[in-house]
Amino acid sequence: MNREILIQAEHLHRYYGPICAVRDVSFELAKGDVLGFLGPNGAGKSTTMQMLTGTLAPSAGTIRVQGIDLLDHPKRAKRELGYLPEQPPLYRELTVDEYLTYCARLRRVAGREVRAAVERSRSRCGLNEVRRRLIANLSKGYQQRVGIAQAILHNPAVVILDEPTVGLDPIQIREIRGLIRELGESHGIILSTHILPEVQGTCNRVQIIHRGRLVFADSMQGLESHLQAQACIVAFRQPPAIEALQQFAGVEEVTELGDGRFRLRYTGDNPAEALTERAVNAGWGLLELIPERRTLEQIFVELTSRDAAEEAA
Ligand SMILES: Nc1ncnc2c1ncn2[C@@H]1O[C@H](COP(=O)(O)OP(=O)(O)OP(=O)(O)O)[C@@H](O)[C@H]1O
C-alpha cells in the first residue's frame, strides 16, 4: 500500500541555552494517520509541536511538509498545516462566524472562497447552531470546536492539536475525540497529550517522548501487543492443587488469589487451550479465563523509568 507522507521530521534537535529539550527526533506522518504524541510534563512535546508548526526553529534537523522544507519555504509549507495550541487563540468578543471569517483572511483564503471555507469547517465541527453566538458565551467544549474549526479552515493536509480535551467534561471529551477520528480520515493528525486513554481511543499510531528523546514509536496494534501481558487469571468451582496448574507447558509461576482463582504467568504459547481441555476433562468447573493486560500507564512508567536509569548509568 502506498502511504502518502505528509510530514517528514529528521534528526530534530532543540537547545535552550545548554538544555537539550529535543534530541534527535525523527518520524513520519502519513495521510490517514492519527499520531498520538505522548510524554510527561517537560518531555519536549510542546517544543516539538512548535517546531513542526514553524513557530520555533530547530537547532538542527529538517522538517518537510508534503515534501516542502519548512525552514526554506515556511509560507508554502505552513499552508498545509493547521494548529490548535493548548490555549486556543479565540477572540471571545466575536461571534463564531465573525471569528472564522477573520481567521480565513489571516490564512489568506481567497476572498470569494471565504464563505464556503467558513461554512465547511463550521459544519464539520458541528457549529452551525451556534454560528451567531458570541464565543465568550459558548461552553468550553464548543469553544474547543471553534479552535479546531480555525485549524482546518484552509483545508490543510496536517492538523496539529495540542492537548485538545484538557478541561472538558466527559461528554465533551467523547465528542471532540469523535471529531478528531473523523478528521483523521481526510487529514494527517498529530495529537499531543499526556492523557493515555485519549491515545487508545483516538489514535492509530503512538510515539512516546521522554527527556527529549523518542523512547517508543509503533502502531496501535504494536502497542496492543505490548499491552498483552504473558499472564491470565483463571477461576474454578472445584480448584485443583496448585501443582496441577504448574505442570502446563510454558507456565512459569502460579499465584493463588483465593476463592478458587489463580494467576498464571507463562512464556511462549498461551496455555489457555490446554488448560480449558484439562479443566473440562477433570471436572474442575472452569468459571473464568481472562487474559491479563498491562495498562498503557504501566508501559509508560516502564519506558520512562528505564530511560532514566540508562541515562543515570
Ligand atoms: N523557552 C524556554 N527556555 C528554556 N527552557 C525551556 C523553554 N521552553 C521549554 N524549556 C524546557 O525544555 C524542556 C521541554 O519543554 P516542553 O515545554 O517542550 O515540554 P512538554 O513535554 O511540552 O511539557 P508540558 O506537558 O509540561 O507542556 C523542559 O525542560 C522545559 O523546561
UniProtKB/TrEMBL annotation:
Any one Pfam family here would be ABC_tran
Top-down, what is the taxonomic lineage of the species of origin?
Answer: Bacteria, Pseudomonadati, Pseudomonadota, Gammaproteobacteria, Thiohalobacterales
Q: Give the UniProt family note.
A: Belongs to the ABC transporter superfamily.
Where is the ABC transporter domain positioned along the sequence? 7-236
Q: What PROSITE patterns does its record include?
A: ABC_TRANSPORTER_2
Protein name as annotated: ATP-binding cassette domain-containing protein
Superkingdom of origin organism: Bacteria
Keyword vocabulary terms for this entry: ATP-binding, Nucleotide-binding, Transport
Cross-referenced SMART domains: AAA (SM00382)
The molecular function GO annotations come to:
ATP binding; ATP hydrolysis activity
Q: Which organism is it from?
A: Thiohalobacter thiocyanaticus
SUPFAM superfamilies attached to this UniProt entry: P-loop containing nucleoside triphosphate hydrolases
